[in-house]
């Protein structure tokens, strides 16, 4: 315990999306109906520490992402602007905080989080504002210059945050605390990773709206009925140092674990108190230690704990093997993504340095698919040094794989990664471009707003989008091998999330037709034609992929004949 002082502490999980995207959600003009919602583990961990060290603190946790999720899920709500939304969010807090700790993990939230901080300072001018998280750690020099911020914490916040608060309570200078940055002068100070994860106090689930979170956590890669998610991490750190990733910047390269017993107690608590039936694992490198992995699942069996598993970050091909995958399947894992990133050996070894063994990748993917598990891979394209020829090596490699889905991403410049530093050094981007990129879109396949010597931003996004449409839809492995029911799993999710998606509708109509569900097939074709006439996104998509769409719904030739599509 540090201090018995009575203070009000407000911990905020900052908005993690571009402000443009937030505006689209709030004005109801967004084409994507989904925002990520997951447990705010960073601020919950800090709340746990503060509850332990400052027993008389009044601690409140405000999850701005959850608030946004609630807001846009309410169909009756009127369009509002982002400042009003943030003010409404802050108005939920009735006491004046002495300290505000705001987490900025995702660089896409850079601008909107600074807006949140400005509005916090306006509302509570005397509160000390402290920021932390991955983005703060890797982009400190542009954050600490914001006059509304009192302190930035770089690296793990566990000890540094508590020590900082203690200094502030005692009116002492926090200058000597590793990781605490008060101004541009001591910018390289960083808190070391926490070495004993068993010291982390229990997460204070009572401080967040668990009822909402459990039902709306959106990290499951496929829709499953009755899913109630409890999210955990059992280790921190990753030794791989892939050139595009910043996961090791806060918790380091050494993987450290919470003891198996403690983990199992945590899971039991989530099941018994909150009725969780699915455990979502958020480790940087799940499966890093085989002994830990086996002990963990053996103990789960011994304690007769029943739950399904979700691993959104996927299974690292270098660390997993068939036996480990079988253990996960036995424990209810229904979907597996492999973060393959590239199908080119050259890119693996020399550009991204992830060094995935491609033969092993083929083996594991075949293994999972044969077990009837939804099997996906992540692919990233557009690294500096990755030429068109190298991209096509990946294309040739992945098009043969027996996968249900390929999640495509454009190489995205997050701060302080080796890849971003190459973009900056080559002059492809400036630091200002970086901030513009984060404002433009999250990592995905929207246009990258800068050109490189390999590709223009537009060329890259067109190419990746075409790969996506070809390999995930028209020549999807399940469609090619007549696994229509398997294909429906992902199509339903896509249509739900992107209602304008006429390519998905055409493919779903085809699946229904082949499965002898004629009425649903023709309903989808009708919906598709109506959308093409009434929705600009649908019309654009139809123009671009018309030949493929028409060929896919050839069973509805008569219906389509009467379709009066306005060729401009
Ligand atoms: C879990 C996770 C997710 C989850 C949940 C996100 C969430 N709601 O928090 C999901 C799956 C939804 C997700 C999605 C995405 N994620 Co993510 N995610 C992670 C992951 C693996 C772990 C984060 C975590 O919870 N760790 C456990 C907690 C306890 O640790 P922590 O958050 O680091 O908190 C500690 C410190 O940072 C610090 N701290 C944190 N907040 C604060 C606040 C204060 C005041 C202080 C003092 C200290 C402090 O103290 C804490 C205790 O030590 C990280 C990798 C990583 N190692 O950080 C990537 C990471 C944060 N994600 C990343 C990215 C890119 C994304 C996506 C954009 C991916 C995509 N293509 O869509 C989306 C964005 C979604 C969104 N809008 O938030 C990047 C961010 C890079 C960047 N600079 O922006 C990371 C770093 C991974 C990477 N590849 O580099 N993600
Ligand atoms: S991409 Fe995965 S394996 Fe590579 S450094 Fe990041 S967390 Fe580790």
List the helices and strands and how they pair.
Layout: E1 8-13, H1 19-26, H2 41-53, E2 58-63, H3 64-73, H4 82-90, E3 99-103, H5 110-123, E4 128-132, H6 134-138, H7 140-143, E5 151-153, H8 157-169, E6 180-181, H9 210-216, E7 229-232, E8 235-236, H10 248-251, E9 256-257, H11 260-274, E10 278-281, H12 290-302, E11 308-310, H13 322-330, E12 335-341, H14 345-351, H15 358-370, E13 374-381, H16 388-399, E14 405-410, H17 418-426, H18 431-440, H19 457-474, H20 477-480, H21 484-497, H22 502-514, H23 518-534, H24 536-552, H25 557-561
Parallel strand pairs: 1-2, 1-3, 3-4, 4-5, 7-10, 10-11, 12-13, 13-14
Antiparallel strand pairs: 5-6, 8-9
Helix pairs in contact: 2-8, 4-5, 11-12, 21-22, 22-23, 22-24, 23-24
The site of iron/sulfur cluster (SF4) has 11 residues, from loops.
Radius of gyration: 24 Å
Total helices: the number is: 25
Strand content: 5-15%
What's the pLDDT, averaged over the residues?
A: 94
Termini Cα gap: 71 Å
- What spatial form do the alpha-carbon principal axes imply? globular
Characterize the main sheet: 6 strands, mixed
Strand order of the largest sheet: 2-1-3-4-5-6
The CATH first-level class of the domain at 8-186 comes to Alpha Beta
- Distinct small molecules: cobalamin, iron/sulfur cluster
Q: Can you tell me the CATH superfamily of the domain at 8-186?
A: Response regulator
Q: How many β strands by DSSP?
A: 14
Helix proportion range: 40-55%
What CATH architecture label of the domain at 8-186 applies? Answer: 3-Layer(aba) Sandwich
Low-pLDDT segments, ≥5 res: none
CATH topology of the domain at 8-186: Rossmann fold
């Amino acid at each position: 315990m540090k201090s018995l002082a009575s203070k009000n502490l407000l911990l905020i999980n900052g908005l993690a999306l571009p402000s443009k995207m937030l505006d689209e959600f709030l004005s109801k003009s967004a084409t994507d109906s989904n925002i990520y919602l997951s447990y705010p583990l960073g601020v919950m961990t800090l709340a746990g520490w503060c509850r332990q060290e400052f027993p008389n603190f009044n601690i409140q946790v405000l999850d701005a992402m959850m608030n946004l999720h609630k807001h846009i899920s309410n169909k009756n709500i009127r369009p509002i602007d982002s400042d009003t939304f943030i003010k409404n969010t802050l108005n939920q807090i009735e006491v004046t905080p002495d300290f505000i700790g705001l987490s900025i993990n995702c660089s896409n939230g850079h601008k909107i989080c600074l807006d949140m901080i400005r509005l916090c300072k306006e509302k509570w001018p005397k509160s000390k504002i402290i920021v932390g998280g991955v983005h703060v750690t890797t982009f400190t020099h542009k954050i600490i210059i914001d006059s509304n911020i009192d302190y930035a914490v770089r690296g793990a916040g566990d000890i540094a945050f508590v020590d900082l608060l203690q200094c502030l309570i005692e009116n002492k200078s926090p200058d000597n605390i590793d990781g605490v940055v008060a101004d541009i002068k001591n910018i390289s100070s960083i808190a070391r990773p926490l070495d004993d994860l068993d010291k982390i106090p229990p997460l204070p689930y009572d401080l967040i709206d668990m009822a909402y979170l459990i039902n709306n956590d959106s990290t499951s890669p496929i829709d499953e009925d009755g899913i109630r998610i409890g999210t955990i991490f059992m280790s921190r750190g990753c030794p791989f140092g892939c050139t595009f990733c910043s996961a090791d910047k806060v918790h380091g390269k050494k993987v450290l674990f919470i003891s198996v017993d403690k983990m199992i107690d945590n899971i039991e608590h989530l099941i018994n108190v909150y009725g969780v039936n699915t455990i979502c694992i958020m480790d940087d490198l799940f499966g890093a230690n085989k002994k830990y992995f086996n002990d963990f699942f053996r103990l789960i069996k011994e304690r007769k704990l029943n739950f399904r598993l979700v691993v959104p970050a996927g299974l690292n091909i270098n660390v997993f093997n068939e036996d480990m995958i079988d253990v996960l399947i036995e424990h209810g894992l229904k979907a597996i993504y492999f973060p393959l990133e590239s199908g080119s050996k050259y890119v693996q070894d020399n550009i991204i340095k992830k060094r995935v063994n491609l033969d092993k990748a083929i083996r594991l993917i075949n293994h999972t698919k044969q077990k009837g598990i939804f099997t996906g891979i992540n692919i990233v394209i557009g690294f500096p040094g990755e030429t068109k020829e190298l991209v096509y090596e990946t294309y040739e490699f992945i098009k043969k794989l027996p996968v249900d889905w390929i999640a495509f991403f454009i190489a995205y410049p997050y701060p302080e990664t080796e890849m971003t530093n190459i973009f900056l050094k080559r002059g492809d981007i400036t630091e200002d471009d970086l901030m513009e990129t984060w404002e433009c879109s999250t990592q995905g396949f929207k246009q990258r707003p800068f050109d490189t010597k390999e590709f223009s931003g537009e060329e890259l996004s067109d190419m990746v989008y075409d790969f996506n449409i070809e390999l995930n839809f028209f020549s999807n492995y399940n469609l090619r091998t007549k696994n229509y029911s398997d294909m429906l799993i992902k199509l339903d999710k896509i249509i739900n999330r992107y209602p304008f998606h006429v390519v998905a509708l055409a493919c779903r109509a085809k699946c229904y037709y082949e499965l002898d569900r004629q009425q649903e097939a023709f309903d989808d074709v009708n919906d598709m034609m109506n959308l093409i006439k009434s929705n600009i996104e649908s019309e654009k998509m139809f123009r671009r992929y018309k030949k493929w769409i028409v060929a896919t719904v050839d069973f509805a030739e008569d219906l389509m004949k009467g379709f009066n599509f306005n060729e401009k």
